[in-house]
């Protein structure tokens, strides 16, 4: 490669990521019990709220017509997407860097394996590098572990994984003189191919949001690039920054194209497409419009109380997708989505895969003590500092039980008529096909073609203060799991 590349040093101290990981482990061991003690008891909540009438809840299902790629064809679609890209300028046997992120994308190992096979079929040597900004504790081993948890291991995909936090400065922006950095291993390769899902972003609205371009700017920039981007985005906005820096990276680096993925409402793969460099911004814009149309959403504009069984980084970058909740309280100078309007959100736990990262928990009004106990604050805060969204990790009040959480939410929205109050309980913001719904919403669902009633409303059952009914997606026989 040309000697114009300058290795960026500030974030590459060999012990930096280790210190973060050790601090996180120590914090978790020493503080779990003290965090649990912050939860307010059920008795105290019920005494403060007085008699709170709970609505009866039924089960509804959204009627979605989808056309996913069959499991046995996913790999072939990935191979075809890679083969549609131009490799004429890549030398025979040249190294191709494949960028893979930290999101829970359906069929990810199969898609990555297909892309790798396509590279090999063209006579080149592929390797995978984590393109996930500061995720995984902002250290190389943590990012390798995140890939492994997503099923992307060297044995599964059939090629080397090179995980490093080292970045190379490849240029500076014209007007603001902002450093533009990229993964050092990727920079030294003969070709670069990012793989990512196209979807609405949680922090901003723009012509391109979460997808290939953002992966180049932030994911491939590792912790330093992500921090630079989010720092400048406070005044510049990611909606303007991502397209400009993407264009610069495409000019400076050997990006031969990207593999774009679309998922339907059921979180199933519906499109795998190879996009050449000159189509990144325009084609991404088109695919983003489709992604908005087919993403899972709450089927009501007005909701009094939303209960979510879990949140996590594998569900959304902000734990709970802001496009689903209609809340974006942590993004400076970025407007919130117009709908839905949700008065109170109660969240019950963190996903296992999020490893205590409670990014976005500040969007909830109440949380269960289990969620509070699971938070790993060093990991969470470092993510928030990198993304400049510290308001998103403010801790909501914690309650001892589900009964207390629901009572607290209902008692703070005004006078409640249990037959008219609009309450939903969902698994998370990714799995929304089946929802527990209060009587008023069940009645509304009866008159809509896009909803069906599966179970009639009945009294909410609690066992030791916890919801007795399983999470909604667990009732769906695998449809939305």
Molecular structure report:
- The chain starts with 5 loop residues before the first strand and ends in a 14-residue tail after the last strand.
- It is built from 16 helices and 19 strands.
- Residues 1-20 have low confidence and may be disordered.
- Helix 3 packs across helix 4, helix 8 (212-219) crosses helix 10 (238-252) and helix 9 (222-236) crosses helix 10.
- The protein is globular and about 75 Å long.
- Strand 3 (95-100), helix 4 and strand 4 (125-130) form a beta-alpha-beta unit.
- The chain has helices at 16-36, 42-49, 74-83, 108-121, 140-149, 154-157, 184-187, 212-219, 222-236, 238-252, 280-294, 322-325, 369-374, 377-387, 402-410, 439-446, and strands at residues 6-8, 57-62, 95-100, 125-130, 160-161, 167-172, 179-183, 191-197, 258-263, 269-275, 302-308, 341-347, 366-368, 398-399, 423-426, 434-438, 451-458, 462-463, 466-467.
- Helix content is 34%, strand content 20%.
- It has an eight-stranded mixed β-sheet with strand order 14-13-12-11-15-16-2-17. Strands 5-4-3-8-9-10 form a six-stranded mixed β-sheet, sandwiched between helices. A three-stranded antiparallel β-sheet has the order 1-6-7.
- The protein has 481 residues and is an alpha/beta fold.
- It has two domains: 26-64 and 296-475, no CATH class; 86-294, Rossmann fold (3-Layer(aba) Sandwich).
């Amino acid at each position: 490669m040309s000697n114009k590349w300058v290795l960026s040093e500030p974030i590459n101290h060999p012990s930096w990521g280790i210190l973060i990981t050790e601090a996180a482990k120590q914090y978790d061991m020493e503080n779990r019990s003290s965090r649990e003690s912050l939860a307010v008891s059920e008795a105290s909540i019920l005494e403060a709220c007085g008699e709170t009438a709970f609505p009866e809840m039924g089960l509804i299902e959204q009627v979605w017509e989808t056309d996913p790629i069959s499991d046995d064809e996913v790999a072939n679609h990935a191979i075809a997407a890679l083969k549609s890209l131009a490799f004429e300028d890549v030398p025979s046997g040249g190294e191709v860097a494949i960028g893979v992120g930290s999101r829970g994308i359906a069929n990810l190992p199969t898609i990555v394996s297909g892309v790798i096979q396509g590279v090999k079929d063209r006579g080149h040597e592929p390797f995978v590098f984590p393109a996930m900004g500061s995720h995984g504790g902002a250290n190389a081993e943590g990012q390798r572990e995140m890939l492994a948890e997503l099923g992307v291991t060297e044995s599964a995909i059939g090629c080397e994984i090179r995980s490093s936090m080292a970045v190379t400065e490849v240029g500076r922006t014209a007007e603001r003189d902002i450093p533009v950095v990229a993964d050092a291993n990727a920079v030294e390769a003969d070709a670069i191919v990012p793989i990512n899902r196209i979807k609405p972003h949680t922090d901003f609205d723009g012509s391109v949001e979460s997808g290939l371009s953002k992966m180049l700017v932030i994911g491939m920039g590792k912790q330093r690039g992500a921090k630079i981007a989010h720092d400048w985005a406070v005044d510049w906005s990611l909606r303007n920054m991502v397209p400009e820096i993407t264009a610069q990276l495409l000019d400076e680096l050997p990006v031969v194209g990207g593999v774009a993925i679309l998922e339907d409402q059921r979180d199933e793969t519906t499109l795998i497409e190879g996009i050449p460099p000159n189509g990144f911004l325009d084609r991404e814009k088109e695919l983003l419009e489709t992604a908005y149309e087919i993403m899972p959403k709450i089927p009501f504009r007005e909701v009094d109380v939303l209960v979510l069984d879990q949140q996590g980084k594998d569900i959304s970058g902000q734990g709970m997708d802001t496009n689903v909740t209609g809340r974006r309280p942590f993004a400076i100078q970025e407007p919130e989505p117009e709908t839905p309007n949700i008065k109170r959100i109660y969240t019950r736990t963190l996903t296992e895969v999020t490893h205590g990262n409670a990014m976005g928990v500040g969007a909830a009004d109440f949380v269960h003590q289990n969620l509070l106990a699971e938070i790993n604050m060093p990991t969470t805060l470092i993510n928030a500092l990198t993304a400049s969204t510290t308001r998103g990790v403010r801790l909501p009040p914690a309650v001892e039980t589900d009964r207390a959480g629901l009572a607290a939410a209902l008692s703070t929205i005004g006078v409640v008529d249990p037959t008219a109050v609009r309450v939903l309980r969902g698994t998370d913001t990714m799995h929304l096909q089946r929802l527990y719904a209060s009587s008023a919403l069940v009645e509304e669902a009866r008159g809509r073609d896009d909803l069906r009633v599966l179970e009639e409303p009945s009294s909410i059952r609690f066992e030791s203060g916890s919801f007795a009914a399983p999470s909604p997606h667990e009732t769906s026989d695998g449809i939305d799991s």
